[in-house]
Hints:
The chain is an alpha/beta fold and 476 residues long. It is 39% helix and 17% strand. It has 3 domains: 7-224, P-loop containing nucleotide triphosphate hydrolases (Rossmann fold, 3-Layer(aba) Sandwich); 238-441, Nucleotidyltransferase, domain 5 (2-Layer Sandwich); 451-476. It has an 8-stranded mixed beta sheet with strand order 3-4-5-2-6-7-1-8, sandwiched between helices. Strands 13-12-9-10-11-16 form a 6-stranded mixed beta sheet, sandwiched between helices. A two-stranded antiparallel sheet has the order 14-15. A hairpin with a 4-residue loop joins strand 3 (89-91) and strand 4. The radius of gyration is 30 Å and the shape is elongated.
Amino acid sequence: MEIKLHDHQKTVARSPARFKIFRSGRRSGKTVLKVETMLFKGLSANALEQLTREFKNPSVIFIAPTAKQARTIIWESLKSRLEGIDKIKFNEQRLEVRIPTELGGVATLFVGGWENRENYRGMSNVIHIEFDETDTMKDFFIGWEEIFKPMLMETGGSAGFAGTPKKENPNLRRLEKEADDKGDWASFHFTSWDNPLFSREELEKAQEEMDNETYKQEIMAEYVDNAGSLFKYTALVDMFSNSITKNEERYLIVDIADDGTDKTVFSFWQGLELYKIEQFARLNTEGIVDKIREFQISEQIPMSQTLVDAIGVGAGVASNSLLDGIIGYKSSYGAIRTDEDPTKLPNVHYTKESKLTTDYANLRSQCVFTLASLINNHDISCTVSDVRLKEAIIEELALYQDASRGDGKRMPTIKDDIKSLLGRSPDLSDTLIMRMYFEIRSKLAPGQSEDAKLRAEKTARQFRVDHAFKERNSAK
């Protein structure tokens, strides 16, 4: 069963790492390496003896984005590789192959699609898993943490994560980043050019005909960022491991479901650390008010640092007499003017300061851009451990683009477009966006707001008039 691997394939195969991330260009020899890895892990006495205990009849799983792709990518290659060898049984319908091992047992190789991942939940004796085209698997980290990783914890098994990078769903990039400080993980990268069997002529042709971005991604296996993304993907991932200096101020942000029948989200903050998220389904106005008062007491959060989405059902919550002093938030509010515009000179007769200005379309736009700046600068931390909440926040924020229209007002992707892309409302990230209201407001010095400045100017004018009147009277 011996087969020759090229030098880069050998580098991956010889690595003692338990978990291997393998980013490669098209036709770089990835499938051959996966077939050989699966056979070695499932059949070799050397590999089987390295597990936590003896597994006479081990299982190895290969997962592609879909079952159809799994058949195309690996099943036919497996059959070709094992053709003519005795005592091997193929099940074409179930995409399973049973092979005798060197320890006298029988290994079963399962080939399937990510869309059927729930079928693998709770499987025993799984000693190795191979994921292919990992960047096209939606909710990958939820499936990995909840379904596949527990299998390997039981057996001490291993896993491989491979594919060509995709900018829309960069699972490989995130795996590489999270593997940096883990001793049993290793990352590998090679291009289509590294496969000596790939035609040089075809590669040169691809270099000439492909646009630069596609060539870098598909042939060179390099990461390509979405140019218009407001949030850096790596910064979104870092948010869940950032260490920040937090103050003692606590905040409660409440995003209320549009019609009161979906989930209402409560997010809890200490400074810029998001430390807890609670979700409740089908809360009516009275129930939401009760929860807010309960959380304010238990978390010691004042009314003035509690903010609620004041649209629809939320309007009734924000105006409730039991929540006097709470802050109602509406995305359509005008942006808070916090910056002095040096291009608009003050009227020297009345004031020495420039007028306050803003360059955002509305309050929501200002909050989204503020959040992006803080996250990209690693100034926000999230210590929520629930993998589903973590993935939802990353997924939602990663969709935001700069959608400014050229009228001088900065604007992000509108919420309706985010909803369409997600297939649901971005309720979790909305609480992060709303939290920025307090950060923006904190930029104002005491009494510094457009209204406050107007009142101050009016007072100063009246003072000057009164002073001049007294001067004239005293002169007489």
